[in-house]
Amino acid sequence: EVQLVESGGGLVQPGGSLRLSCAASGFTFSSYEMNWVRQAPGKGLEWVSYISSSGSTIYYADSVKGRFTISRDNAKNSLYLQMNSLRAEDTAVYYCARVHHQGVGLDYWGQGTLVTVSS
Amino acid sequence: DIQMTQSPSSVSASVGDRVTITCRASQGISSWLAWYQQKPGKAPKLLIYAASSLQSGVPSRFSGSGSGTDFTLTISSLQPEDFATYYCQQANSFPSFGQGTKLEIK
User: Which of B55, B95, B96 sits opposite A107 (nearest CB)?
Assistant: First the structure.
């Protein structure tokens, strides 16, 4: 069974940092592209970042570029999101999600981890 | 950036009704489109990928169509468990989502 389990969320002050993790199981993690997607309270879905299966190709949304860093450790079946210089508008549930093998759509999602940026 | 616009933003319907949700891309995206269902407090669930392909395990009452800039998600006969929020997402370039359509019970 495919599982994605996020961790690392919590309350952080503006300007602070947080590192999210996503532990993958039930599939060959190293063969799949991955994404981070977030959802602010009561709002819609916002794509945050993408990483290729090898980690060689990375993209970011303009809203997080220069502040967030996506990475993966295929030996540990894990995906990460390092978030620096956090702002109130980064408050959201953060999901890791696997790209469908045909490249269109995100077929498995974690349960999400809540990041709250507040003083 | 490609903008995705869904309509309507909300819709009220009854069990057994046929419902159609539309999604328009600001530029052509071929068939690089997916549809999701999200229930409160839960992660989104993939329903349709590549505009019209039904994801494994999704009931056949869900269908998708379209290409280029205009797409539709149709639920042929609403069931009680279908009341949720639906999102489209383009995968032609950096992913972007529509604003969502909330499907409510009439």
Answer: B55
- Assign B85 a pLDDT band (cuts: 50, 70, 90): very high
Sheet architecture: strand order including A68-73: A3-7, A18-25, A78-83, A68-73
Contact flag B91-A105 (C-beta cutoff 8 Å): yes
The pLDDT of residue B106: 87
Q: From A110, which residue of chain B is nearest by alpha-carbon distance?
A: B43
- pLDDT, tens digit (0-9, with 9 covering 90-100), for B13-51: 999 999 999 999 999 999 999 999 999 999 999 999 999
CB contact (8 A) between residue B95 and residue A104:
no
What's the pLDDT score for residue B52?
A: 97
Cα separation, A4 vs A24, whole angstroms: 5
Range B3-13 average pLDDT:
97
Where b means 16+ CB within 10 Å and e means fewer, B19-47 reads bebbbbbeeebebbbbbbbbeeeebbbbb
| Res. A103: pLDDT tops 90 | no
Tell which phi-psi region holds residue A30, choosing left (phi > 0), alpha (psi between -120 and 50) or beta. alpha
3-state SS string for B47-96: EEECCCEECCCCCCCEEEEEECCEEEEEECCCCHHHCCEEEEEECCCCCE
DSSP letter at A44? -
> CB of B24 within 8 A of CB of B69?
yes
